[in-house]
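Example 9 (inverse folding). The structure is encoded as follows.
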């Protein structure tokens, strides 16, 4: 029995949620699950259709991108996951998809504006779109540099990864994360739905305004503030 069975099972279950939620086609996505005590994570193997996945097929990788267990190559995005785990110590799962609406915003190189209360239930800011990668980074260690592309964008904006758990990578697609793989998948689904709502809103009214600050604060704090009252205690 593998010492990594728990995170392999967690990664498998989280990956299987992506097609169920309509967040992926074919093999267009991946989820990883981390074990901080061991300094490793489990991630989907590259190019394997979801219906062929098992918990045993998950690949174990450390934060320096060394494969420790697995019979197949890990996801082509593994170096991005590894770098984010190494630098952001409080995340337990990462999701990358090419979900339609979030990817469309990434291809347009645009932040997703905070236009309604669904967005404000989860974030108080626009969903950021990291800048287009420069040619030197593209020619270098591309997937590793994608991780720095995300981290650098957060540093420049003064965002924390604990409060903003999602990002678009310009001309590429979205990434999301969370304290658990399940929360990372949840954030990925929220990102796609908010992207769809913003797109439709701007089709109906191209000059639609952003949500006003008082509503942003109200909706975020009723779920996340010290006096939050959403859900059950």
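The amino acid assigned to each position is listed next.
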């Amino acid at each position: 029995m593998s010492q990594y069975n728990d995170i392999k099972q967690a990664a498998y279950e989280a990956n299987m949620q992506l097609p169920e939620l309509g967040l992926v086609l074919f093999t267009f996505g991946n989820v990883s699950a981390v074990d901080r005590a061991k300094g490793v994570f489990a991630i989907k193997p590259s190019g394997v259709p979801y219906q062929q996945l098992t918990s045993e097929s998950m690949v174990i990788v450390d934060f320096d991108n060394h494969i420790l267990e697995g019979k197949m190559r890990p996801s082509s995005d593994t170096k991005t996951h590894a770098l984010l785990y190494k630098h952001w110590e409080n995340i337990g799962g990462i999701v990358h998809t090419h979900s339609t609406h979030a990817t469309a915003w990434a291809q347009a190189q645009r932040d997703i504006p905070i236009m309604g209360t669904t967005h404000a239930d989860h974030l108080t800011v626009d969903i950021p779109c990291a800048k287009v990668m420069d040619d030197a980074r593209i020619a270098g260690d591309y997937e590793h540099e994608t991780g720095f592309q995300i981290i650098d964008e957060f540093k420049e904006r003064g965002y924390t990864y604990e409060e903003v758990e999602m990002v678009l990578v310009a001309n590429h697609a979205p990434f999301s994360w969370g304290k658990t793989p399940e929360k990372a998948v949840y954030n990925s689904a929220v990102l796609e739905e908010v992207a769809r709502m913003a797109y439709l809103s701007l089709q109906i009214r191209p000059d639609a305004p952003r949500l006003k600050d008082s509503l942003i604060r109200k909706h975020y704090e009723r779920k996340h503030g010290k006096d939050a009252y959403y859900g059950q205690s």
